[in-house]
Design brief:
The chain contains 24 helices and eleven strands. It is α/β, with parallel strands linked by helices.
Length: 530
């Protein structure tokens, strides 16, 4: 009597689309021999391919409990957990597989990507650089699941997140040597070139990528930022409308073409608090068209934004009760803003006089020059893609600020955030003779910060919402600006921005290097306080 191989039989039936029958054959075989690894793995494969993922995990894990040294099965388990969103379990499975087969390119690449998603960038780099070393030592090595350009793309992307842009370009170019017109490589290289302030090269790269993948909104948004960075506002603000993260509402969007006289327009806030401050200047321009405005404003800004006027209503997020809606940062496009017509009054926000007087009493200022200071741009835990900018380039360590404490001025902290304040406390503990006035516990919202600013002579800040606030109040503001600057600070003069007449900009000359910035700023401050 011929013995029928249940695994071969089930595969044949499954190939005919009879998945349930195939599964029954294997389950019957398993019932006769519960510990047979091959049958468990076959059941795992069958249910995996049928997208019965919980069942697949069940069978694979049962097989692994019998014999743990199965890297291919561990790989499948990791892939399923990753697909299901369980990154920690996926990481565990890839790690177990790599303990058995440490030079597995597929596992190294995939585990590196999971480390990246978890924000563990250095660990991701270690996996991906090892994968690259394996490729270099075995150039003819072939993998079933990952090609060399994929490893180079991922390695370049993680180097970007580590702020190592020049190195990232090397790997993007290696990938493009194999896949000359691959949009993912072109897109990543284009973004990296933007971080290096090579804006025209970035534009050229991103245009090539978009020609190949014309409906990719993310790439169009990146191209918008590059255009804006070189002052091409017509092209930039037009493409800025592709912002992929905007929440669309079920109401009519205002395109600028509709007559809004007598209509209600809901202006929806977006992005950071500094963006709301900067672009709130357009609200009176909508009022001039005869529209009634509902302006969604984050709570910390509501009191200070009220100073724009008393005709519009400040609201929290709403879904109905208006005729049209528009996202706040679409207003430059609606009003056809270019470098020559930016609505840039000396000041467009103001503070209640009683509150100014209250903070004057708190400050109890001396006759010395009063300088407000912000050295830290905050930490957005949910935006790991920005960590390299915040920690590597935007923020200034307190050691760089030491020279300020030797000047004949009073320093006043306008800083919020535990991380930055703890850093300053540790710095002051090392230098007990240094003094800085600090009121973070008494500042409830931006109207308090604004009232404090009104009592100062100058505000010095890295790129944060406080820089926007001070400049919108017409206060002299010095921006300590990173090399790979945000587009709004780029200008032909380099030291001024058309958005804020009272702002002076001190730019890094080299990526991540603050020495020249501090030299220029100290020199200017000494001249100011003679």
């Amino acid at each position: 009597m011929n013995h029928i191989d249940p695994i071969k039989a089930s595969m044949k039936i499954a190939s005919e689309g009879k998945t349930l029958q195939a599964k029954k054959i294997l389950m019957d075989a398993l019932a006769q021999n519960e510990n047979k690894i091959a049958i468990l793995n076959a059941l795992g494969d069958l249910t995996y391919l049928s997208e019965e993922l919980n069942d697949a995990i069940h069978f694979y894990e049962k097989s692994l409990r019998i014999f743990s040294q199965q890297p291919n099965i561990l790989f499948n388990v990791a892939v399923i957990h990753k697909y299901s969103g369980n990154l920690v379990k996926a990481l565990e499975a890839y790690t177990r597989a790599l303990e058995i087969r440490p030079n597995d390119l597929d596992c190294l690449n995939n585990r590196g990507n999971i480390f990246r998603e978890l924000g563990l960038f250095e660990k991701a780099f270690q996996d991906l650089i090892k994968a690259n070393e394996i490729l270099n030592s075995q150039p003819n090595m072939k993998s079933h699941k990952v090609e060399p350009w994929i490893i180079w793309l991922n390695l370049g992307n993680i180097l970007m997140l580590l702020g190592r842009y020049d190195e990232a370009i090397i790997f993007f170019d290696k990938g493009l040597s194999l896949k000359k017109l691959l949009p993912d490589l072109l897109k990543s290289k284009g973004v990296c070139l933007m971080y290096l302030a090579r804006y025209q090269d970035s534009i050229d790269c991103l245009i090539k990528a978009i020609d190949i993948r014309p409906h990719d909104l993310r790439m169009q948004f990146d191209l918008a930022l590059a255009y804006l960075s070189i002052g091409k506002y017509d092209e930039g603000f037009s493409m800025y409308e592709t912002r992929p993260f905007l929440k669309k509402l079920e109401r009519a969007i205002w395109t600028g073409a509709e007559d809004v006289s007598g209509k209600i327009i809901y202006v929806k806030a977006e992005q950071g608090l500094g963006d709301v401050i900067q672009f709130s200047r357009y609200i009176p321009m909508i009022e001039d068209l005869g529209a009634k405005i509902y302006f969604q404003v984050p709570k910390p800004l509501q009191k200070i934004i009220r100073s724009l006027g008393d005709k519009f209503e400040i609201v929290d997020e709403i879904e109905e009760g208006f005729d049209y809606y528009i996202h706040l940062m679409s207003l430059p496009y609606i009003f056809k803003t270019n470098l020559h017509n930016i609505p840039a009054r000396e000041r467009y926000l103001s503070v209640d006089k009683e509150k100014i007087a209250l903070w004057k009493k708190k400050l109890n200022r001396s006759m010395r020059y009063q300088v407000g200071l912000v050295w830290h741009g905050g930490f957005r835990e949910n935006r790991p893609d920005l960590w390299h900018i915040n920690h590597g380039y935007r923020n200034i360590t307190c050691e760089f600020l030491e020279r300020l404490f030797h000047l004949d001025i009073d320093l006043v902290s306008l800083q919020k955030g535990d991380e930055a304040l703890d850093e300053m406390k540790n710095f002051l503990d090392k230098h007990p003779s240094f003094r800085i006035k600090e009121y973070s516990d008494e500042i409830e919202d931006f109207s308090d910060t604004a009232a404090l600013i009104e009592n100062l002579d100058l505000v010095i800040s890295v790129d944060t919402s406080v820089a926007h606030l001070a400049a919108s109040l017409g206060k002299e503001t010095w921006l300590l600006n990173r090399f790979n600057s945000c587009w709004r600070w780029n200008s032909s003069s380099k030291t001024r921005t058309p958005w804020y007449p009272s702002m002076k900009i001190f730019n890094q000359r080299k990526l991540g290097k603050w020495d020249d910035v501090m030299d220029d700023m100290i020199k200017n401050l000494k001249e100011r306080t003679k």
